[in-house]
Design goal:
One of its GO terms (molecular function) is protein serine/threonine kinase activity. By secondary structure, the protein is α+β, with helices and mostly antiparallel strands. The protein has 12 helices and 12 strands. The protein has 2 domains: 103 residues, Phosphorylase Kinase, domain 1, CATH 3.30.200.20; 217 residues, Transferase(Phosphotransferase), domain 1, CATH 1.10.510. It starts with 47 loop residues before the first helix and ends in a 36-residue tail after the last helix. The N terminus is likely disordered.
C-alpha cells in the first residue's frame, strides 16, 4: 500500500544461486482493452460508504464485515500476507463464490485512509486489463474500509528478488523480462486513458505474480488522473516510496506519466542488479540504486544469478532501457509504449550464441537478502 515513504527499497547485492526456467514462454499476451467508462475524480467529503454506493458499482460484491471475518478466520495473524502504511492484507476464502481472495483491511483512523479506499475502489472498478489486479468486492458497511481482490498465489516480484526462502530458485532471465514486459503493458494501458492514470506507486512490491508468473500491477490507492488540455502536470502532495520517486516529483510535487516511467526504470534495475531501490546501510552516494547504477559498467551491475542466461547484447539492451527510464530530465525518458516495444524485442528468442559469463561456465546461485531487507510483501503491500 502506498505511504509517504516506506522503509522498503535499497539493498546490497547478493551472491547467486543456480537458476532453472520457471515460465512457459511469456507472451501470454494481453491486448489493450476497449474503451471504458470515464473514471470519476475522487473527492471524499461524504462518508466513504455513501461515496462508494453513489458510484453504482454493479458487478462487485458488497460483502459484510462478518463474511470477511469468517473468510480470514477472524483476520488471524497466520493469514497475513503483508502490511502497509494504510492497513493489512490477508488471505481469505469466500464460501459464497468458492474462491481464494486477498483482503485488504484499511486502518479506520484518518481521512487519508478514506481517500485511498474510495480511490482504489473507483479506479479498479473502472480499469480492466490482463496486467492489472482484479477487484472482487469491498466492504464499506458500519465504518469499515475493506477491499477484496483476486488472490495472486506467487506473491510479489519483490519477494522473488530480495526475500527468497531457503531452497527457492530465483527468477530466471526469461521470467524476469516477461514479468517486466507484462507490468509495462499494464502501465501502458493506464497511460493510454484520457486523461491518463498515473499509478504513483510503481515498485516491485506492487507487481504481483499469478499462475505461470503472470504479472499484474496492484495497489491503486495513490493513483491520480493526469493532466488534461494544455496542462503539463498535476500538482499533488508527494507520496510514494523512497528510491522509486522521480527527482522532479520529489522536489516539486508535479506529477506526470513520466513519474511512473522513472519508477518502472528503478524496478528494472532491481531485477537486473539484484539490489533494492534504496539501501540505508550504504554510504549516501551509493544508497539510491538509480544514482549508483548510472556510474557503473554492466560487469559491475549485473546480478550474478543472471550469468550465462542471456547474451551480453540482451543485457546491454535491458540496462539501456532502464537507464533511459531513470534519466534526471523527465522529457528525456521514454514513453511506456516505447518501453513495451523495447522489452518485446528483448524477450524474443535469440539465436544460439556465446552467453554472457563472468568467472566460469556455471550459473552461480543467489542467496536471499538478509533480515533487514525482508520488507517486501507477498500480496503487494510494500509501503
Amino acid at each position: 500500500m502506498g505511504s509517504c515513504f516506506s522503509s522498503e527499497g535499497g539493498g546490497s547485492r547478493r551472491k547467486a544461486r543456480t537458476v532453472t526456467s520457471q515460465i512457459p514462454r511469456a507472451e501470454q499476451s494481453e491486448s489493450i482493452v476497449p474503451t471504458e467508462p470515464v473514471i470519476p475524480v475522487v473527492t471524499v467529503e461524504a462518508p466513504h460508504a455513501e461515496f462508494i454506493t453513489d458510484q453504482g458499482l454493479e458487478g462487485y460484491k458488497n460483502s459484510t464485515y462478518n463474511e470477511l471475518y469468517v473468510a480470514t478466520d477472524g483476520f488471524r495473524v497466520d493469514r497475513l500476507l503483508g502490511q502497509g502504511g494504510f492497513g493489512q492484507v490477508y488471505m481469505g476464502f469466500l464460501d459464497s463464490t468458492n474462491q481464494e481472495v486477498a483482503i485488504k483491511r484499511l486502518d479506520l483512523q484518518g481521512q487519508q485512509g478514506d481517500r485511498e479506499f474510495a480511490n482504489e475502489v473507483v479506479m479498479l472498478s473502472s480499469l480492466h486489463h490482463p496486467n492489472l489486479v482484479k477487484l472482487v468486492g469491498y466492504c464499506a458497511n458500519n465504518g469499515q474500509r475493506i477491499l477484496v481482490y483476486e488472490y495472486m498465489p506467487l506473491g510479489s516480484l519483490y519477494s522473488h528478488i530480495h526475500d527468497l526462502p531457503p531452497g527457492q530458485q530465483p527468477l530466471d532471465w526469461s521470467t524476469i523480462i516477461n514479468t517486466l514486459l507484462g507490468a509495462a503493458k499494464g502501465l501502458e494501458y493506464l497511460h493510454s486513458k484520457a486523461p491518463p492514470v498515473i499509478n504513483r506507486d510503481v515498485k516491485s512490491a506492487n507487481i504481483l505474480l499469478g499462475e505461470g508468473y503472470h504479472p499484474k500491477l496492484s495497489d491503486f490507492g495513490l493513483a491520480r488522473l493526469g493532466p488534461t488540455g494544455d496542462n503539463t502536470h498535476v500538482s499533488t502532495r508527494v507520496m510514494g516510496t523512497h528510491g522509486y520517486c522521480a527527482p522532479e516529483y520529489l522536489m516539486t510535487g508535479k506529477l506526470t506519466v513520466s513519474t511512473d516511467v522513472y519508477s518502472f526504470g528503478v524496478v528494472m534495475l532491481e531485477v537486473l542488479t539484484g539490489r533494492i531501490a534504496r539501501d540505508e546501510s550504504l554510504p549516501e552516494p551509493n544508497r539510491d540504486l538509480a544514482l549508483w547504477a548510472d556510474e557503473q559498467g554492466i560487469a559491475n551491475l549485473v546480478d550474478p544469478a543472471l550469468q550465462g542466461q542471456c547474451s551480453l547484447n540482451r543485457l546491454s539492451l535491458a540496462f539501456a532501457v532502464a537507464r533511459r527510464c531513470v534519466r534526471e530530465l523527465p522529457d528525456r525518458r521514454p514513453t511506456m509504449p516505447e518501453i513495451v516495444t523495447a522489452l518485446t524485442r528483448i524477450s524474443a528468442p535469440e539465436p544460439r550464441r556465446r552467453r554472457f559469463e563472468r568467472g566460469g561456465p556455471s550459473t552461480p546461485a543467489r542467496t536471499s537478502s538478509d533480515g533487514n531487507q525482508a520488507q517486501g510483501q507477498d500480496q503487494g503491500e510494500g509501503s
